[in-house]
Amino acid sequence: MIAVPSPPKASPGASLLAFQQWLSPAFPTGGFAYSQGMEGPMAARELRDAAGVGDYLADILRFGSGRVDATLLCHAALGDSDADALADLALALAPTAERLREIREIGAAITALTNALNGTAHPPRPHAVALGVAARGLDLPGAQLAAMFLQAQATTLVSAATRFIPLGQTEAQLALARLAPLILDLADEAARTPLEAIGSATFRADLASAAHETLDVRIFRT
Amino acid sequence: MLDAAERISGAQIHQRSHGCAEVVIAAHANGARLERLAQAGSAKAILPRIHDPRPEVVFLNTSGGLTGGDTLRYALRLGDGLCATATTQTAERAYASTTGAAQANVDLKVGRGGWLDWLPQETILFQSSNLKRRIVIDLAEDAGCLFLETVILGRHAMGETITSARLDDRREIRRAGRPIWIDPLRLDPDSLGRTTSPALLGPGRAFATLVLVAPGAADALGPLRATLTVPGVEAAATAFEGRLVLRVLARDGLPLRRQIARAVACLRPGPLPRVWQYQD
């Protein structure tokens, strides 16, 4: 492994702005094109209103990819963690071909962009790990990184649902805002969760992601 | 073997049980050769056809089920070039526990050029059960496997509804020491309570994951998808990087078993393990 000299940490204020920039929908990672398999239940009209979408997102965050990825992010953000082992773990945890592609493609985009912004030379790694590694130079606690990440994930999916179902803009944003207490709890937990304790119960979301491969009409890439 | 400690579990009195069964098999000119068989406590390993070119190993937990404080370990090591099937004699039962988790470990190693079909019978979770299990298949660089795990929440025929149980069931396949597939299933009363969620199990009470790890595994995706026709199941298959993953969900065990039997028959030529109590 080539040792990359780590630059001095940014100030807390500058860190907040930087991390917000990386999570912004305007950061060109192409995140808007992915639905994590949510297109399936939306197309099947299992998800058809803001309340249903809010509950679905809460389940994904609490019992599925949200919790898993937030934990990976927190571990990757620790300067002394093994980023390559975490990348292997993240790839092995991908439940379907499309989810694997999603975390790979978004992770590669994040790595390229943050390398350019930070003057680093990290190899491409999957989404949450790439983000955590880039955040090593930031002065933000893991729980805060995780909270902002989870909110960004939820924002991407709410935006997908707003366009697809469609939802009214205000009710969609209300559903997102209602997730805040859950997001804060999960972020706090993710910062304390050992890798060994990563777990998921989102069996039907994983089924839907696999079934998405054979949907007749697909708006989203995943 | 059995601790003197007794405790109440449901209406029954159980003794804490511990079991460990370890099997090592090597390839041999005329089939396979048993190198080691160690059995302790409630765990047994039966080798009905050890000298076949493709031997079968059947693990058995004689305690009848797992409850808090119990430990159970099955281990199997296949020598280079050996292909084998391993299964379990009966469904594993996780019984109600008031004394923490039962701990189960399944450690399976496959040597160079080897192959393992890990096709255990289902795990049945009872109300208030608590099972922590770690299943690891360690493949040599060019080895492969077919992996199945099935979970059933309660006994449907008895009208049981499971609202409170814990299952922390990490299934991990490694190649040359690196993880290539991990399914970190974790059920708890909170997730089990979300019975209307399109993200979790929904009304499903029986579910299975079948994974094929082999070069060209994706070639079987089309034929496998063609078997996904059993009424009463939700099933979807996906393939990526030498892995083929099938997930099946049903309201109860019967359609699930029929679908699994068809899928396994598609991916694995020859008859199903003889101890399976269901055939298509």
TrEMBL record, chain A:
Gene3D superfamilies: Urease accessory protein UreF (1.10.4190.10). Keywords: Chaperone, Cytoplasm, Nickel insertion. It holds the Pfam family UreF. Its main location: cytoplasm. Coiled coil: none annotated. This is Urease accessory protein UreF. Transmembrane segments: none annotated. It is found in: Cytoplasm. It comes from Szabonella alba. InterPro entries: UreF (IPR002639), UreF_sf (IPR038277). UreD, UreF and UreG form a complex that acts as a GTP-hydrolysis-dependent molecular chaperone, activating the urease apoprotein by helping to assemble the nickel containing metallocenter of UreC. The UreE protein probably delivers the nickel. GO terms for molecular function: nickel cation binding. GO terms for cellular component: cytoplasm. Required for maturation of urease via the functional incorporation of the urease nickel metallocenter. Belongs to the UreF family.
TrEMBL record, chain B:
It is found in: Cytoplasm. One of its GO terms (molecular function) is nickel cation binding. One of its GO terms (cellular component) is cytoplasm. The keyword Cytoplasm applies. It comes from the Bacteria. Coiled coil: none annotated. Its main location: cytoplasm. Keywords: Chaperone, Cytoplasm, Nickel insertion. UreD, UreF and UreG form a complex that acts as a GTP-hydrolysis-dependent molecular chaperone, activating the urease apoprotein by helping to assemble the nickel containing metallocenter of UreC. The UreE protein probably delivers the nickel. Required for maturation of urease via the functional incorporation of the urease nickel metallocenter. Belongs to the UreD family. HAMAP family: UreD. This is Urease accessory protein UreD.
